[in-house]
Amino acid sequence: MLQIISGLSRDVRQYLVITFSYWTFTISDGALRMLVVLYFHQLGYSPLEVAMLFVLYEFFGIVTNLIGGWLAARLGLNVTMHLGLLLQVIALSMLLVDPQWLSVAYVMVAQALSGIAKDLNKMSAKSSIKMLVADDQQSTLYRWIA
């Protein structure tokens, strides 16, 4: 398997690394949100109260989208992708505490970090893939992601 991967072109290997990072992030982010929903539902919170837990997740996702491009231009896409992955690990780790610590405010902070991480990772992955393809070969990009 490693021999097959090492025989691929640099661009294809980069594509695979970026795709694997994005998929890994997506799975962990989905798991985090699902666990939060199920946990607070089990505690007896109403659907609206559970939905309110994600307000900071969405808000900080919007804020991150607003400044993400500037941040990537200053730090680089590789750094912003790794920063997004690190923030997701921190957000997931925040939920490893004693269940008595899992107050609504505490979980909302973890969700806020996860929202920042999501948009840093998403922006970095999409931009990195776009940079792998020359401007005159954009149809190749659509074949790669299809």
TrEMBL record:
Q: Write down a Pfam family by its short name.
A: MFS_1
Looking up InterPro entries in the UniProt record yields: MFS (IPR011701), MFS_ArsJ (IPR047769), MFS_trans_sf (IPR036259)
Entry protein name: Permease
Membrane-crossing residues? 20-40, 52-72
One molecular function GO term is: transmembrane transporter activity
Name the SUPFAM superfamilies for this protein. MFS general substrate transporter
What keywords appear on the UniProt entry? Answer: Membrane, Transmembrane, Transmembrane helix
Q: Which PANTHER family match?
A: MAJOR FACILITATOR SUPERFAMILY DOMAIN, GENERAL SUBSTRATE TRANSPORTER (PTHR23547), MAJOR FACILITATOR SUPERFAMILY MFS_1 (PTHR23547:SF1)
Q: From which domain of life does this come?
A: Bacteria
